[in-house]
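Quick one: structure for this chain?
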Amino acid sequence: MLQLGEGMKLAGYPSTQLAGNRTAGGAVRFWEVDALRGVAFLLMVVYHAAFDLAAFGGWPIAVTVGGWRMFADFIASLFLFVSGVSLVLAHQRLGSDPVRYRRHLVRRFSRLAAAALLVTVVTWFVSPADVVLFGILHLILVSNLVSLPLLRLREWNLLIAGAAAVLGFFLGRLPDNPWLFWLGLVPEGYRSFDFRPLFPWLAFVLLGVSFGVWFYGRGVRRWRLPEAATLPGTGLLVWLGRHSLLLYLVHQPVLIVLLTAIGAIDLQRLIG
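Got it. Here's what it folds into:
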């Protein structure tokens, strides 16, 4: 893997424009990946605010159909795409050191599993009928595990992504199976606050993998991007992206408290 030190040049451009920035721990990070995750987080906050207003405030917002449903699907696809890119970057950065790479994966997947379990437990207490058994965090965890052995296929993952999308289309038309609902064999009338089956959504992770291999090559960008410091608001987006898992877990309680404080929702609807 090609790594450039600070101040080095490549093809006449500053290293930070092609090779990313180094963190305090020496790891190379590409600001645009964190920023894109930060954008996805902000969009998710907008959607969940609308959801809370509809569910707990009685506002006439059809968050599960039409444009709002498409908006939610776009946000999910953005998170999944970025997770695929991140898989590639982590493999490029640590793949040559099996011990560090294994520790990174164990830490990454342990955090995701703990967060997904927490979401399941909390939503069960809030509303057992709508408990989240396979939401976006569960999906990111499983789809990343599935994608790991596929990293060696590099750009060929684009074809596998297409196959995953097609498979999701056909699974939705097969008889349901309560034990395989997470694959896409969804029982009729299934309810959940958040549900994203592995198929067809795995396709977006594999698209991210394919893009990551193509754009970041040997650990450098295919072409230069502006410095993050020159773009207003980028610092906030990068910060949000780097802390998105923790922020995901706390943003709904914060939203509910804020919306209750301004009288936009009735907390009795939630606890009743």
